[in-house]
Amino acid sequence: MLIKPPSDIRSSEITDKSLYLNRRAFMRAAAVAAGAAATACVSTDALAGSGQPAAHGRKLENVKSSPLSTSELPNTWEQITTYNNYYEFGTDKDSPSRYARGFKTTPWTVAVEGECNKKAVYHLEDILKGQTLEDRIYRHRCVERWSMVIPWVGFPLSSFINKCEPTSKAKFVEFTTLADDRQMPGLASGVLPWPYVEGLRMDEAMHPLTILVVGLYGEVLPNQDGAPLRVHIPWKYGFKSGKSIVKIRFVEKQPVNTWQRAAADEYGFYANVNPTVDHPRWSQAKERRLPSLFTNTPTQIFNGYGDQVASMYAGMDLRKNF
Ligand code: MTE
């Protein structure tokens, strides 16, 4: 995000193959029409290369459909698994699809720490025990202005938090994700302070829309999308959704999230999608709904989930708390 403004995103990084090929033809024609200057912008180099879609995984059983899903058409498996931000596996959009293939996600444990009664190291199987998995088709809006619609499979974060029995001192939840330099080539770059950390206010974490994600399109979550366990908060910019979570800590003070640590003037704690609050380097008024090439879809306040979430921020200055 910091190192790659949206204007630099290559069209080839959106990899629905037929659309990509059509676009290639379209862009070649456009370049010819526009003359030599445009030809330089569509050099073979800029269009070459795309990620490998994830192999299909185990089908998840007993998944209920959720009334909280959007009725918008989801992006394809190919798009969702080849256009990712997961800097532990590299900063290009197709890097995670290339370098996370051998990532080992079993066995997996999550440490629960801080202000709660049930501190322990939990096996993923135990976290999943008794949870009803749901299909949750959510809008997903990145701070870089691209957006997708993703059919996650998950369960409310609140139902896991309740099992942890947070104390009255727990005002925030902090998520820490895996940083394993034997498996994650991106860690060597030092592009971000590792491990990747994110946080939510307790009411945000307990909100029925906030989910722990374990699957995609009814199958086990692909590595590049945050396997085996990530969070998704659909009214916030994507960077709030930590991938491959290994620690959940209940804390009294507002956590400092990784992007805030890296560039506090550009990335805040709240990160609520807001078309009226620009990023210092670009407007947030519109977005590019992948696989479109054009940033022409109006962005909605709270990513379209305002009816459900706006009351949590009543009276807050959203320009200061960006
Ligand atoms: N989690 C970790 N551990 N590392 C990351 O680099 N990137 C964030 C978020 N979670 C990131 C992460 C950003 S910037 C976005 S937009 C989303 O993941 C992207 O999720 P997606 O690739 O599933 O679309």
Architecture blueprint of SSEs:
Layout: H1 17-34, H2 36-41, H3 44-47, E1 64-65, H4 77-82, H5 95-99, E2 109-114, E3 120-123, H6 124-128, E4 134-141, E5 146-156, H7 157-164, E6 172-177, E7 197-201, H8 202-206, E8 211-216, E9 219-220, E10 230-232, E11 245-251, H9 258-262, E12 286-289, E13 297-298, H10 306-309
Bound molecules: ligand MTE.
Residues 1, 84-88, 140, 142, 177, 196, 225-226, 238-239, 241-244 line the site of ligand MTE.
Structure overview:
The protein is α+β, with helices and mostly antiparallel strands and 322 residues long. Helix content is 20%, strand content 20%. The protein is built from 10 helices and 13 strands. The protein has helices at residues 17-34, 36-41, 44-47, 77-82, 95-99, 124-128, 157-164, 202-206, 258-262, 306-309, and strands spanning 64-65, 109-114, 120-123, 134-141, 146-156, 172-177, 197-201, 211-216, 219-220, 230-232, 245-251, 286-289, 297-298. A hairpin with a 2-residue loop joins strand 8 and strand 9 (219-220). The two termini are 16 Å apart. The model is unreliable at 4-49 (pLDDT under 50). It binds ligand MTE. Ligand MTE binds next to loops.
What number is the mean pLDDT?
Answer: 88
Which structural class should the secondary elements be placed in? alpha+beta
Strand percentage, roughly? 15-25%
Count of extended strands: 13
For the termini, the CA-CA separation is 16 Å
Helix content: 10-25%
Uncertain residue segments: 4-49
Q: Order of SSEs, N→C?
A: HHHEHHEEHEEHEEHEEEEHEEH
**Principal-axis shape:** globular
Total count of helical runs of at least 4 residues = 10
Biggest β-sheet, characterized? 8 strands, mixed
- Rg, alpha carbons: 20 Å
Present as ligands are: ligand MTE
